[in-house]
Amino acid sequence: MCRHIAALGPARPLGGVLVEPEYGLYRQAWAPRRQRHGTVNADGFGVGWYADGDPRPARYRRAGPIWADQSFGDLARVVRSEAVLAAVRDATVAGADDEAAAAPFTADRWLFSHNGVVTGWPGTAVDLAATLPAAELLALEARCDSALVWALLLHRLREGEPLGQALADTVLQVGAAAPGSRLNLLVTDGERIAATAWGEDLWYLKDRPELHVAMASEPYDDDPAWREVPDLTLLIADRNDVLLTPLKEPLA
């Protein structure tokens, strides 16, 4: 499916996280090393970041492959941030949503990405969608499984659920409604990153001079400090600590 990454650290150009590493997200668009589903991530891409003093993230997305966008190179070279979330997309099914279906999705102070698939889409989405108010359904950015998962999570966050609980509850809800779904989710508010490993690979890296913590579909270099996350796990990280908590798999 997709490849994505979120990172916190000292301010640095976006390209330092996404382009410069030997096996960074830019290269993962056409040559991922650990992708088990799909081969090329050319159905869109996006990057979100936080500017100093502004809690709401900025975002740049396009419908085509990242390597074909000549503007992205300039943006990645000059835009600096302490927090970034980015993704390259391999679409679950063909659709007409173009860049609206490309992560990161955003609302309020949040950035969100989904690597995986909701099985049986769109048939399995009916019961899930019924749990949302009509106004939130009408506000969906795209008609894809990732956009619905984001809407379910955002609803919980706006209802006041803590980040980790909201993420875990969303994965368990979707997993119960659509067994066999792959639900690796990434979300950040610029100060923390939360993620789930649910049917797809997930890795994290912490405490390098240029980086506090990163969570990614696959390592962007061969540093042995990368740690693979066990399946069915919730991660919560800030600039100091990473906490791993097992998730309870719902009965099929």
TrEMBL record:
Keywords: Glutamine amidotransferase, Hydrolase. GO terms for biological process: ergothioneine biosynthetic process. It catalyses: gamma-L-glutamyl-hercynylcysteine S-oxide + H2O = S-(hercyn-2-yl)-L-cysteine S-oxide + L-glutamate. One of its GO terms (molecular function) is hydrolase activity, acting on carbon-nitrogen (but not peptide) bonds, in linear amides. PROSITE patterns: GATASE_TYPE_2. NCBIfam families: ergothioneine biosynthesis protein EgtC. This is Gamma-glutamyl-hercynylcysteine sulfoxide hydrolase. It comes from Streptomyces tsukubensis.
